[in-house]
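ok so for the tutorial part 2 we go from a plain amino acid sequence to predicted structure tokens. step 1 is just haveing the sequence, like this:
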Amino acid sequence: MNDDNPLTTLGDHTKPAGTLIEKISDVLGGIFKPWQIVRVARAEAEASQIQAEGQIKVEDIQRRAFRRFLEEEAKKQQNIEAITKKALPLLENKSAPQNMADDWITNFFDKSRIVSDSDMQQLWSRVLAGEANSPGAFAKKTVNLLADLDKSDAELFTNLCGFTWQITTLVPLVFDVPHELYDRFGINFNTLAHLETLGLLKFAAIGDFHRDNLPKITTAIYYGRSTNITFPFEINNQLDIGKVLFTRAGQELASVCGSKPVEGFFDFVYDRWASESLVPRRESEQSTG
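step 2 — the prediction. this is what the tokens look like for a chain of 289 residues:
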């Protein structure tokens, strides 16, 4: 690895971290030298030499444009390094950065280099680490969609993911809108329709989505809490999963968005399933029933 790599100053790296840095640097042409600064510094030196020799006269507007270019390139470099730095602690021992597609890396940093907000950089770093941990996990279309998200959009989507269960795949269980429980987190008809236009989900304003072909016993998990849903038939059972279904991009981003469980939502969903005889009633309900 090149000794000019500024990320080597972060301390000892695991092998996956060092491999990721090398992979990114190779794909982007020695990005951590950093190549942009080398390139513009060389141009600046040449301009100064020409100026000193009196071969051309650099007008004020040209100097201002060049200064702006330097500042913009330096900022992009800082963003690239910040996102990479935040991704390193998220790498797993089984991470395989060497297997990441070159085109994916190029596209990722082309989109993320203008991201300077710390919270959004953290989201980008999770995507980078997720792809390094499991190459092919994040489509380029997902990266492109992320690039179009405002911070407020990302925060809204993260709020929605607080209602997400694992039922064979990630499923946001939004049964009723409007509803006070969802309203508290900004989840309503208008915001769901907005997230749909962004390509993160499908929203059924009328009717509900269903998960089909489920076995008699299906495990549902909510942030580490699990319960078994028991259906009447051995095969081909159907479960109402509400009004929202993630797209592929939504699925991929939901896995790394940093959402947190909503207090009381496990019981809210459990009680709904209990009323449909899909899970046993809770003891507190049985004693008062």
